[in-house]
Amino acid sequence: MEILDGIVKAFQLIISGDPRVFEITLRSLFVSSAATLFAVLWGIPMALFLGTKNFRGKFFVKGFFNTMIGIPTVGLGLILFLIFSKAGPFGMLRLLYTPAAIIIGEAILILPIIVSFATTAIESVDPEIMSLAKTLGASDDQASFAVLKEALNGIVIAGVASFNRAIAELGIALMVGGNIAGWTEVLTTTISNETAKGNIELSIALGITLLILVFGITLATMAISTLRRRRK
Amino acid sequence: MNWIAELKDITKTFNGITALDNVNLQIREGEILALLGPNGSGKTTLLKILAFLEKPSKGEVYFCGRKVTEKDMKQMRRESTMVFQRTALFNTTVYGNVAYGLKVRRLTKNRIDADVRKALKLVKLEGFEKRFAKELSGGEQQRVALARALVLNTKLILLDEPTANLDPKTALIMEEIISEVNRELKTTIAMATHNMFQAKNLPHRIALINNGKISEVGTPTEIFGSLSKTLASFAAVENTFSGNAKVMENGTTLVDIGNGVQIEASVQSSGEVSVFISPEDIILSKSRFASSARNLFKGKIIEISDLGSVVRLEVDVGKPFTVQITKRSFKEMELNLNSEVYLAFKASSVQVV
Questions:
Q1: Which one, out of A33, A213, B33, B151, has a CA that is 20 to 30 A from the CA of A91?
Q2: In a domain, B270, yes or no
Q3: Nearest CA of chain B to the CA of A132: how many Å?
Q4: B169, exposed or middle or buried, with CB in 10 Å at 0-12, 13-18, 19+?
Q5: ipTM of the complex
Q6: Inter-CA distances, A114 with A32, A36, A120, A193, B205, Å
Q7: Which residues of A have a CB under 8 Å from any CB of B?
Q8: pTM, whole model, 2 decimals?
Q9: pLDDT in tens, A177-219
């Protein structure tokens, strides 16, 4: 009965637009989006390089990123905690327990997903596309962009998978964010914390919100990419 | 007569392998020049150097009388465009494909629309703008690729085996378009081919290329006439054989090409000659059949290459013959390596030089 009661109250919280649920959800969205944006900005040029160039040690670089996809979030969280803590090498930046620290941590966490998925997508593009764009008059940058455009579907999937991983992870947000009310609370850290305190209905409300976000964003992306294909 | 492009002592090596060896070649303004040679002779590399996609390891390239330095290469790519053998298409509409080069040149939308329409008309694909390029047939895709190059109105167009993967009917359409473009728009064209028949009929001049070297350059009459010796040394070119010819009582010519294979040709000729038969002109059957074809040989399939809508077979009848049939026939006849087959072709299909 307690669970059922919790679910009913959770829906009431969501529907009534509870300010705390609203605030935490917005912060989660902001932090994960910023992390995804940074990871994409760094990761796509890396993927373009890995996917179109041949060099010594390429196998190991790709292997490294593939392995890093599975890194435990708590492990990475701990490393970042040590780096950002007062005695750590970046202690003077005073980033520990700020949203910025979570953004940096999650960006590092999801970079390997972006790089690996996007590299695979770029590698599956016809290798002649680059030469083709160039012989049609494109500059080197325009030719690279043509390759990215051909790999767009794969890159979008990489972006969505990364965002989902960022918004759903707990370890980093907890260890470098600290779950400070009104400042670094995000969906996952609050769920964990409120459950421990026995505040079940808030946890369920936030859990439902998290699931709706993840499902909604994934479905919306799928729908857009299907529409795009049909329009062609 | 002006040169569009001139190659001086061009050598190109890839990882120690020489693809082009001291090549000298001029391309005249307004001509169609065919590079004729077997697969792997260096034709594609030569075209890529003329397209400024590859830089030569040694030697100099002149374009419209000016020496092209490494710094100029990117700029020069806008003057010379290449159509690749394997049709690469952007994952978008026909319009998106043909408009690409115009968009990177920052032309206005109206101008792009008009130019795309003209180019599609030229390749006989009017009204195809909104179709999805990758859903077209092989021949239509190759024409989209051609339109995409033509629309740019560059000084030089380079075609790498423009008809190699096409069925004979579509190949003919392509040849007509190429010849029309050259005639009407005065576009200079350099094309690679290993098809003797195409080389004889389409270009103004032919450059024979083998093992990265250009051995002869001349008009088709010169190449196929007095230079038959060089041509005959092209053992790797499809269905080209040399042998001794004598005129028969019935007025046809019998050419003994060795290994007990004698070919009957309808033109009269005697002495040492070269003959070739277009792979599309040979009829393949699984059993001996009565027909008007004067040449009938029994052989075994020794190689099968799938080219998409058509299949090329290498048949050993004492001498190796290349035969091209449609994929559908290939499947219906249930052919395999070592299948026994009969080849038939008319005496009039045999070209004697």
A1: A33
A2: no
A3: 7
A4: exposed
A5: 0.78
A6: 14, 9, 10, 30, 52
A7: 126, 128-129, 131-140, 142, 146, 149-150, 232
A8: 0.77
A9: 999 999 999 999 999 999 999 998 889 999 999 999 999 999 9
